[in-house]
Each structure stands twice: as structure tokens, then as C-alpha cells.
Amino acid sequence: MSWTVYLSGEIHSDWRQRIEAGARERDLPLSFTSAVTDHDASDAAGDHLGAADQGFWRDHKSAKVNAIRTKTLIEKADLAVVRFGDKYRQWNAAFDAGYCAALGKPYITLHDESLIHPLKEVDAAALAWAHTPEQVVEILAYTTTA
Fold first, then answer.
1. Is the per-residue pLDDT at 65 higher than 80?
2. Burial bucket for residue 5 (CB in 10 Å: 0-12, 13-18, 19+)
3. CB 109 within 8 A of CB 79
């Protein structure tokens, strides 16, 4: 059986590539999906719908267009990995984790120890917490091949 893993969260490090490379090296039966990870493209997703005179409306339109992809891919995924980095607040990642929880979709959080307290509710609903991409690969290997 092949599993689909949705990768959510911060876009400023190589965590996605490390998970995908680890899965390939172990020949795990996985495919990966993700939100658009090009920040500028994501911010401009709704620009073709017309000019917005305030930043709120530009963000509002783009968030809705991005949600078409995000919602669809999370619903189709077998599980998700939600990454929280230390440089930026990833409200979208927290939303994705909440959406997974509401759907009963299993998810793994990925973040360092400094974020344990701010993410306590997000982690409480997760089925695992990892602090390295390699730990995520170990979880994926166990759950998909054991």
C-alpha cells in the first residue's frame, strides 16, 4: 500500500527535502504533497482576481485560493507532518494541524524543544512529536512497513 503524506509548515529550511530523501533511501511506499512553498507565489495566489486596495483583501483572496489546494491535499492525505520553525510564526501550520485534528487525520508535529509550551494544544492532538526530520522518517518507516 502506498501512503500519501502532506507536509505542512515553515518554508525556510530543508526539512521537506530531508524527509523525502530519507524516505527514498529507505524505499518507503510514500508520496508527498505540500502547500505552495514559494512565498511570493503564495502571497499572489489571488492577484489575478483583481486589485485589492488594502493588504487584508489581497491576503484574503490569496488565502482562499491557497485553501483550495491545502484543503484538498490534506483531505486526500493518509497523514500529515506539521513543521513549526523558530524564525516565523506559522499560523497556517497551526491551522493545518487543527484541520487535521477536526478530520481525525493523524499528524506528526516537527519542532524543537523551545516551542513545546506554545504548541502544547497542537502537540496534544498530534499522534507523535519529533524534533528532527530523521525522527519523522523513522516514524514513517515504522508505520508504513512494520
1. yes
2. buried
3. no
- Residue 6 banded pLDDT, cuts 50, 70, 90: very high
Query: What is the side-by-side strand order in the sheet with 128-130?
Result: 30-34, 3-9, 79-83, 107-110, 128-130
pLDDT of residue 96: 97
Cell representation of residue 38: 514559494
Mean pLDDT of the region 85-107: 92
Give, as one character, the DSSP assignment of residue 145. H
Question: What's the confidence (pLDDT) of residue 50?
Answer: 85
Instruction: Give domain limits for the chain.
Output: 3-37+73-145
CB atoms within 10 A of CB 6: 23
Q: For 47, list phi and psi in degrees, rounded to 5.
A: -60, -30
Instruction: Give CATH for domain 3-37+73-145.
Output: 3.40.50.450
What SS3 state is found at 33? Answer: strand
Q: Contact 67/95 with Cβ under 8 angstroms?
A: no
Residue 6, beta-bridge partner list: 33, 80
- 88: which 3 cell numbers? 516565523
**Grid cell of 139 as nine digits:** 516514524
